[in-house]
């Protein structure tokens, strides 16, 4: 099972680095579907994997000086996302406390993620015909970042497609530019979220071997994903993204059923 989780983490990190979605939106629902680990444990493992991949990808881009990150917009978005990441963890803890079993909270996460993914899919298909904006106001950037961080942290996905839609719509970014800025935002939101989890998650349930392996796979995925991203065009990235969204929708439909019947 560990080997399978390593493969999932590696593959998800490659796709996450290419599309700018972090990889958690793949790791979280797929690991949920196996039903062998607690929801909070999966959230933590997914978050650590995403954090390792985004740290590598963002730092490598900055060092290589081929980064498309818009620091003027990306930094307030990232700061807002970092604060939102903490708020999202608190929100998940509260929602989970409302139910008798963690599985119900997992079903809520899967349902919301399915709706967001479906909305993202529709937007991506229609984005060429949708009028976009160029937000520059610092306060609005902080608010937008906060909402992104809160949603991503609550769902345990690190970042995901919602980042890209927001960057397309509010900041008129191209696919590859949005991908790099999304990873930058995810780095901050996932960093604070993971730091909080270190103090609130029962780490005794987590295998150090599994955690270390997934983190290494996240870094390796970031290395390969970055290389692939440079070799393909934006049209190919969009098609990969659309196909991924369709797969994730079906995985979440299964997870809703799975969590509600066990």
Automatic annotation (TrEMBL):
Its main location: membrane. It is a multi-pass membrane protein. One of its GO terms (cellular component) is plasma membrane. It is found in: Cell membrane; Membrane. Keywords: Cell membrane, Membrane, Transmembrane, Transmembrane helix. The keyword Membrane applies. It holds the Pfam family TauE. The chain crosses the membrane at residues 5-27, 33-56, 77-99, 105-125, 137-170, 206-225, 237-257. The keyword Membrane applies. Coiled coil: none annotated. Belongs to the 4-toluene sulfonate uptake permease (TSUP) (TC 2.A.102) family. PANTHER family: MEMBRANE TRANSPORTER PROTEIN MJ0441-RELATED, MEMBRANE TRANSPORTER PROTEIN YJNA-RELATED. This is Probable membrane transporter protein.
């Amino acid at each position: 099972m560990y080997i399978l989780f390593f493969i999932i983490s590696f593959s998800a990190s490659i796709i996450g680095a290419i599309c700018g979605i972090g990889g958690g939106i793949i790791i979280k629902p797929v690991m949920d579907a196996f039903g062998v680990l607690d929801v909070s444990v999966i959230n933590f493992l997914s978050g650590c994997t995403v954090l390792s991949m985004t740290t590598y990808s963002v730092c490598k881009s900055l060092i290589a000086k081929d980064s498309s990150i818009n620091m003027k917009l990306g930094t307030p978005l990232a700061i807002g996302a970092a604060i939102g990441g903490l708020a999202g963890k608190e929100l998940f803890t509260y929602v989970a406390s409302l139910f008798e079993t963690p599985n119900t909270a997992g079903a809520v996460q899967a349902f919301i993620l399915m709706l967001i993914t479906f909305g993202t899919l529709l937007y991506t298909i229609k984005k060429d015909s949708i009028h976009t904006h160029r937000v520059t106001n610092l306060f609005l950037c902080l608010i937008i970042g906060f909402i992104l961080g809160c949603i991503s942290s609550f769902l345990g996905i690190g970042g995901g497609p919602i980042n890209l839609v927001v960057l397309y719509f509010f900041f008129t970014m191209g696919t590859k530019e949005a991908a790099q800025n999304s990873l930058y935002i995810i780095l901050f939101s996932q960093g604070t979220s993971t730091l909080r989890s270190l103090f609130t998650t029962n780490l005794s349930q987590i295998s150090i071997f599994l955690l270390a392996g997934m983190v290494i796979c996240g870094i390796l995925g970031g290395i390969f994903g970055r290389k692939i991203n440079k070799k393909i065009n934006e049209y190919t990235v969009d098609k990969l993204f659309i196909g991924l969204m369709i797969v994730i929708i079906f995985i979440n439909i299964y997870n809703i059923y799975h969590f509600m019947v066990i």
